[in-house]
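Request: How about a record?
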Amino acid sequence: MTSWDILLEAVEDLALDTFKKFKLKLSHIDYEGTHNLSRGLLEETNDSVRLADHMREHYGPDIAVEVAICVLEGINQRDAAAKLKQKKQQGEETGDYRQKYRDHVARDFRTFKEVNACLRENVTLSSRYTKLVMVTNSLGISEQEHEVLSLRERRAEVGMEDAHPALTVETLFQPDERGQVPQIIVLVGGAGIGKTVTARKIMLDWARGAIYAQFDYAFYINCREIDLSQQADMLSLMDLISACCPYGKASPEAILASPEKLLFIIDGFDELRFSLDQPENKLCSDCGERKPVEIILSSLFQKTLLSQSSLLITTRPTGLRRLKWCLKEERYAKIMGFSDAEKEEYFYKFFRDEEKAIKAITFVKRNDTLFAMCLVPILCWTICTVLEQELNEGKDLVRTFRTTELYVRYLSSLFKHGSDDLKQDMKTFLSRLCCMAADGIWKQKILFHEKEIEVYGLNHPVLLSLFLNESVLRNHMKHVSVYSFLHPSFQEFFAALFYALENNEETEELGTPVKGIKKVLEKYSEYDTNWILVVQFLFGLLNEETSEYLMERTACKISPRVKEDLLKWLQIGRRSTLCSGGVISNLNVFHCLFEIQEETFVSNALEHSTGIVLKDCTLSQYDQMVLSFCVKQWTGLEYFHLEGCTVALEDHENKFVPGPPDRSHQGAVLLLKALIADDTIGFLGCKCTLSAHTQFFFRQYSQVLLCSAALNPFIPQSGLMLGIALAQVQELALGLVERHEVCMGPLLKRLWWCRLTNAICGDLATVLGTSQSLRELDLGANDLGDHGLQLLCEGLKHPSCQLQMLRLVGCQLASSCGDLAVLLSTKQSLKELQLEGNELGDPGLQLLCEGLKHPSCQLQTLRLLNPKIGSTCYGDLGAALSTNQSLRELELIDDLRDPRVRLLCEGLKHPSCQLQKLWLRWCQLDSACCGDLAAVLSTSQSLRELDMHGNELGDPGLRLLCEGLKHPSCQLQMLRVFQCELTGACCGDLATMLSINQSLRELDLGDNELGDPGVRLLCEGLKHPSCQLRMLGLWHCQLTSTVCGDLAAVLSTSQSLRELDLGDNKLGDHGLQLLCEGLKHPSCQLQTLRLWHCQLTSAVCGDLAAVLSTSQSLKELDLGVNELGDPGLQLLCEGLKHPSCQLQTLRLWHCQLTSTVCGDLAAVLSTSQSLKELDLGANELGDHGLQLLWEGLKHPSCQLQTLGLRMCMLTSTCCEYLATVLSTKLSVKHLDLAFNRPRESGEQLLLES
């Protein structure tokens, strides 16, 4: 019997009067603090079945039985209670354990302790949960972005509904567009965004049967608890599972019987301090085997444990870099936060008073920063708390809140609780709390243990829970408390308060190693994201009104000395990373000045600076308002430069409150007025540079801006911005042609996604008809339409037009192909036409084909993607191919299944067809299509390159292709069939073909499950004396060390093979040792070897060094994403330094290298006469490592031309060394420093060099 059956039977046995007493007692039972069923509901319930149902829904089945026992005992029905107890016990012994586990989960996850520093009350999860926006994401997330400062950009992304496919919790494990069901889901989101609440809601809904019916068991694993445990402890996966289960140990056999029905929810991956990228030989496959916890989790992640189970992992962006190396075929989902509608829903839930909710949401919608912050649930709660306080005090919500004001008002709300004595304790407590916050940021700590709380003197019985969030975690058999701030931004606020407060005697006795404000500002100058918001808060706390408010409400006094320190720092900043040559390029500086809101201070701070340079950023309305405020106080502004910036207009207008919207905050208007107004700065006299890639979205004031820019004599011609989403662009373009005789070629080359319409095309046509220099024109992703193209063609047909390449990708073209056809038949210069993403339709393509068939057509390259044409049109295209004598390259992405491919092949087989390159990627081709393509291969005398990757050819399809490739007349030189669902069964046919074909030089078989047996067969063909293959791609083909002996035999035999890609295969050290035997053979001719992500370690580097010191052919070696480490690379360097080494390119991306090995690399650079390219990206070299490397780079014998240092933890400190190299070392041509922090001063040094 189930719990519900037992409960129903007990209630049915009650007499009528007892039934009434039972309901009365049930209405105020107060079972273990759980809310009671409402009396009204119980009074309306007159039958046993409905009562049992209500109890089950409210309490959960198991708890409902417990409650019934208590009620029966409370109304003196002891025999009935004893009988119910007995049946419950029998049910537990014989019942379905799965249901008992679900009931336990439902009970455990039904409530949670609200992150509410004032009340700390348990609330039901369903009453607080509001759905969050989730989108699919392919790791386009910065690990370094600040989780509060980036919210405005994220809010804009949430508004772009078409940017990413939307997801819901219910659809996370549904099949994708290719029908594949994901086993691993990674939920990514910033702190406080709702990852844990979402994970807990998933557990609750699963337990209630609302979602994921495919899983019998779901287990919630808290990484914070895992990290708290000693890493040396040995445990098994069953130990982790048992810790989740009630009623003692669960039956392993019952739970593990169907591993495909198990779901593990791993919450908070970023909080794990150990590495999960464990080598395969350390992993385990036995669920009962005890190992260190990092091995158990690594085995679960890498699917050596319960390979059929499913995982749902939550993490902050900071954990992504570690996570992605230990997962395969995972699907990423990004939690964006609340949508605009969900913010509104949250406000109504919070206030419960419609009038207050409307006032609050209206105010927030008119404040760009607050509206963006409401994406994050905990910050949304904070804003609601502050606004509730303001409304309860009878204040009108009319003034914009600065970021600091919000946090100060939240702090003041905490001081309202308790007696005067408590408030006195609170002042001391606050000083100590601020000290801990600052010290935590220096140590990069967000969790504080009980011992640390005691050290800082924060173990106050009332105040501790008021200011900090407590998490009670399991650590072995005991429970341990750890503490954190509500959100990282609160820790940053209290850290700022620590540096701003006067007289911190309370913290001096602690002896804590907190560094001074000078060090904080140094970190800020280095763009350390840990301190950006701290310094912004620091400025905000110095605002006079804020200081007085803080003093009045909390008795905390801000030190006036801090303001002097900050002003001095800003004034000398023009000689630091903040301001190079008097030009400020850090937008955060202006936000700091805006926070202080004191005109005299801002004016004094900017008096020695002369300009603004902002690059590659999005300026929200709030940013524009900030800039406007600063510009108004800046009397010495001479230079205003925006490069690669998007200046956006956003409307957060109230859609449900009547009345006109409040536009007083519109930053674009304010910024323009500040720049143009006579009493602030003359825009015409300002050196205003508008970059070619900048996109302005000023609507109402665009004409003023453009006219001013067009008349500006200071505009450098090479920096003119033409990518503007406005019709006035022609006025600027043509005006400058007349006034300054600008060469339009470099300016008009790329106008991709500039929001142009057909209104501009007449003016562009005029430019095309006069320009003698323009060779390329990219108008992709603009809504030109057919009329726009008609206008454009007038200029293109002009005899003076010399355009060679025209890109019209996604330009909403359809019926205008007649104009293009005329153009093709008359324009002798046009060589390339790209029309991807236009729904040309049958009439459009037929017209285009007429142009292609014209004898005067000189087009060489044509690209069409999803042209929306019928089968018969491919006959027209085939006819054009059989006639046109110039077309050499054709790219098609469309559904080409029969009869389309057959019609196309008729043209390809024609003797007059001159096509050399044919790209048919992702065209839904299957094995049935391959017979026609094989006939082309055996007939065509021109076709040299065929790319068919991403099609479902399968082994039968490739066998048919091999028949064409074996034909004596086949001239094909390159075949790409990666991702074509091939297996080892086709490798025999490939081997036979390779031993016969005399033309094929390049074959890419990557990302197919060929396996060791298949490649062993392939090797027979590769070793054949007649094989002429020069490049072979076998990346991600499920290979192991087993096949490496066969590949070594190929290397020692083949006289043609020059390039071999074995990346992303589990070759291991033993496999590479076997390969090295072939590489060292005197007959080996291989020049390029790619071994990225092949599970190699330092143990094999000695063998590689021996290859480098003997091979006379090897020129390029890719060892990226292998755990070589410093010891391994030191061995490798011995081979690189050998006089016989001929290596020119070495890639060591993400090989776990540190500065320790840089001295050895420097010795290589100063010795090697062959090494030209070195990629050290994604290794923690740091400035010290680069300093060591510099010794080799500056050596006269160094021949290096390209150096890759992406993501190497470099700062401005290293730029002095690099600048010296660049200014003196003429050999260095390419330097990649992306994703480091050279900052403005470092960049300036590099540019000057």
Summary: Residues 420-442 form the longest helix (23 residues). The two ends are 82 Å apart (CA to CA). The chain has 54 helices and 39 strands.
